[in-house]
């Protein structure tokens, strides 16, 4: 639009200059015609035969107004009609002619009675009329000049309008053609924006085809390709680093299981002969057993997370979620009688596709989390239901809630609460991370909302029909 506006402004200036120049040319031509008709007017005033031919042929143009002024008095004045008759000129028009008259020059005057603008030329002496002090005024209408200028202006305006439309159409075609490669840039970037880039390996094989590297758009596409190559190499390096870390964690966890089992075994053997141990040795042995048990649990959790990251450790089958929740609530009630657990189930069984042991671990972790991180007497409730094509399990408690600063990272690994929400023996901070990993592996999700007196963990899993329809081949 800026180009079109500049074009219209430039052509308008050129058109205005052209019209003004044409007006000057036409006015000069009219002045020459008037001066050419003065001899015929002088002959008319002296009684010579009147000629109504054009001034270029030695006659007087129809509509010409003339006046003879001697010493300020108008001796004769008339307007020549198209049939050669002389028409009377009003006093007002005569005054206008006289006011506009300058000796030996031509000026413009505006007359009444429909005569419009006239061009007035004046001669200072008229010897052939015997009036040495006389002034002869001859005026010719500017109507023809104005009509010519109006026609010229109309032609220029139409031409500018048509040229502007043509410029818009041509510019649109050229701009679209020049920017067409940007369409592939948009498509490629949109496709990449939909890729999951946060974790795992990412395939970014999409590239933008460079049609002409010499153009601005070509340089942009080349820059986009270089950026994509840099992002791809960075993501590959990050994925390789993650693989190394996961492999290290898996290998280390696997290798640590054997010495930990040995430590626990020797501790149990020593415990059988504790009659010969001193009190300090028995206390040290108890601490060794507790630390070995805790470290074994941590190693098992790390190994499980590493295998879940690799996509293993999930055996799929039909799981009756209703029976699973009933058993988990019974176990939780037995493990923590000071935390009453309520149960809400639908009338019909709720079945999902998943790993029974891992889903049991998820529900048990959430119930244990509600029991461990809340004071005695806190009420816990497990609510199972169906929402559309998903099974929904909520584990709620009326405890003090999760601190606001922890809610955003609660499901990350090694995230622990404050002292009031930590286990007496210490928490590894992997429980909720394992829950989220298991839910992700099942194609489900876990959400949490918490405020003092109301904390709710919500699990969503696809029902049997939906899970079977969307499960990949081989599952």
Low-confidence parts: 48-53, 418-426
In the CATH hierarchy, the architecture of the largest domain is 2-Layer Sandwich
How would you spell out the order of helices and strands?
HEEEHEEEHHHEHEEHEEHHEEH
Q: Mean pLDDT across all residues, rounded? A: 79
The tally of strands reads 13
Number of helical stretches of at least 4 residues: 10
Radius of gyration: 52 Å
Fold topology:
Blueprint: H1 2-45, E1 65-70, E2 73-80, E3 86-87, H2 91-100, E4 106-111, E5 116-123, E6 134-141, H3 143-193, H4 216-272, H5 279-309, E7 317-320, H6 321-335, E8 341-344, E9 351-354, H7 356-372, E10 380-387, E11 390-397, H8 404-407, H9 431-441, E12 445-451, E13 454-462, H10 464-470
Parallel strand pairs: 8-10
Antiparallel strand pairs: 1-2, 1-6, 2-3, 4-5, 5-6, 7-9, 10-11, 11-13, 12-13
């Amino acid at each position: 639009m800026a180009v079109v506006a500049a074009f219209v402004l430039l052509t308008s200036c050129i058109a205005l200059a052209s019209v003004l120049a044409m007006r000057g040319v036409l006015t000069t031509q009219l002045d020459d015609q008037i001066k050419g008709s003065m001899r015929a007017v002088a002959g008319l005033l002296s009684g010579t035969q009147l000629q109504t031919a054009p001034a270029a042929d030695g006659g007087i143009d129809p509509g010409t107004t003339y006046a003879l002024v001697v010493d300020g008095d108008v001796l004769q004045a008339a307007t020549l009609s198209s049939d050669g008759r002389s028409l009377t000129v009003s006093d007002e028009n005569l005054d206008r002619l006289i006011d506009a008259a300058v000796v030996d020059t031509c000026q413009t005057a505006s007359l009444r009675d429909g005569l419009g603008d006239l061009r007035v030329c004046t001669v200072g002496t008229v010897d052939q009329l015997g009036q040495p002090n006389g002034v002869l005024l001859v005026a010719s209408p500017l109507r023809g000049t104005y009509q010519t200028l109006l026609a010229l202006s109309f032609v220029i305006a139409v031409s500018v309008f048509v040229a502007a439309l043509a410029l818009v159409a041509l510019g649109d075609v050229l701009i679209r053609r020049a920017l067409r490669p940007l369409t592939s840039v948009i498509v490629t970037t949109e496709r990449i924006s939909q890729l999951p880039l946060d974790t795992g390996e990412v395939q970014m094989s999409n590239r933008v085809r460079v049609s002409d590297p010499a153009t601005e758009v070509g340089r942009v596409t080349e820059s986009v390709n270089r950026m994509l190559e840099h992002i791809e190499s960075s993501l590959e390096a990050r994925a390789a680093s993650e693989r190394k870390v996961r492999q290290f964690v898996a290998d280390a966890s696997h290798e640590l299981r054997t010495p930990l089992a040995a430590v626990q075994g020797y501790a149990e053997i020593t415990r059988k002969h504790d009659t010969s141990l001193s009190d300090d040795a028995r206390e040290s042995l108890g601490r060794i057993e507790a630390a070995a048990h805790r470290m074994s649990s941590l190693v098992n959790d790390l190994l499980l997370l590493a295998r879940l990251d690799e996509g293993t450790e999930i055996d799929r089958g039909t799981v009756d979620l209703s029976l699973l929740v009933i058993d988990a609530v019974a176990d939780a009630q037995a493990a923590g009688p000071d935390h009453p657990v309520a149960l809400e189930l639908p009338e019909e069984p709720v079945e999902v596709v998943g790993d029974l042991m891992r889903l049991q671990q998820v529900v048990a972790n959430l119930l244990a989390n509600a029991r461990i991180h809340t004071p005695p007497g806190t009420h816990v409730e497990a609510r199972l239901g169906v929402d559309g094509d998903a099974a929904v399990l909520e584990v709620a408690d009326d405890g003090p809630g999760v601190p606001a600063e922890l809610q955003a990272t609660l499901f990350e690994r090694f995230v622990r609460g404050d002292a009031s929400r930590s286990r007496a023996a210490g928490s590894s901070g992997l429980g909720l991370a394992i829950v989220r990993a298991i839910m992700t592996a099942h194609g489900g999700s876990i959400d949490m909302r918490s405020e003092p007196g109301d904390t709710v963990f919500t699990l969503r899993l696809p029902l049997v029909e939906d899970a079977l329809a969307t499960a990949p081949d081989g599952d």
